[in-house]
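Lab channel / #folding
Pinned by the channel admin:
"Please post every new chain as: sequence first, then the structure tokens as a reply. Keep commentary short and put observations after the output so the thread stays searchable."

First post following the new format, from NK:
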Amino acid sequence: MSYPWPLDASELFGERYPQMINTGLPVGDVDTVRAAVSDMWADAPGGWVHEWSKLAAAYADAGAHDRAALAYGWAKFPTLADASKRVALTRQLEQYQLAAPDFGLQFRRQVLELPYRGGTTDVPVHLLAPFDLPAGRPVLIASGGVDSWKMDVHGLLVLLATQLRLQVLAFDIAGTGESTVPMTGAGGAELVGGLIAHARSLGNGVVGHVGISMGGYFSARSGLAGDVDAAVVLGGPVEAAFTGARKDVFGMDGIVGNALGFDAPPTDEELALRRAEFSLRPLLDEDCNAPMLIVNGADDVHVPQHDTLVFQGRRDTVVDLVPGTGHCAVSKLPEVFPTILGWLDRTLNTAVEAAR
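Reply from TO:
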């Protein structure tokens, strides 16, 4: 189920431009696409998918498969609302796998059959690890959010795997990417639980969870419940972001509506009712959390500061609300990510020692 909705392409470029150029695409190429795009949904010259796919195809023809995967990633952005977006995702996966021999680390793709609502569902995952992975290391499960998925955050996954010298299991949260089930709080958490159980069998039993944006909702959930040994929440909504009083910007209402499984634009009331089910207030009222690191930008237009600051004062929890940056602190990631790496290294090593 999916649907397009009124969306201003120029506004998306304005919001996502730093992300586009910080993930590895040349500024001049992004600027060329930006100047050419005049419509979000037309699969024709001037259309978002057409112009991004044109750039991606040129990269692919030149053998630059890593850049082709990035460009096809933007072609399918922000959600698989029509056939052309789904084609772009298929091509992104093809180029990503062609680029894999040059990742500089081990890469495996697997499709796991995980428990889901009394049955099972297939969950494609990507496993990244250093070639000289030491024996008996922890495993990280990691995901992007509602519009930037496992292949789109590849650069961050590589940093996690190489700097921490462990295996990273990357996945798309329910309702996004290659997932075939809608995004719900309980259903998505059930899938995460299956991934955690699988990850415990891959290493020494210690598992961390890194979630970015809406992926941070699920890492907050697994961290608050004590289901993992360490949880990093980067820009994750947990409570205030799900209140009906908030107004979405930059097309987030349609992005979330698609992820939730609507097949036509929901009313404000329908969207608010569905979102209210995601609040983590019941878990926030408990005291069984694993060690947690909560990070976001102070100027986030999608997630209120409350959803970061609500963690202040919790046991085994570090909170960093970064000034001068927005959602997921994306413009200051070069400063923020070393902090995340250092915290994970210390916390996971402590968990390993405690498990001995």
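NK: The chain has two domains: 9-99, 104-355.
TO: also worth noting, The beta strands are 106-116, 119-129, 139-143, 167-170, 207-212, 230-234, 292-297, 317-322.
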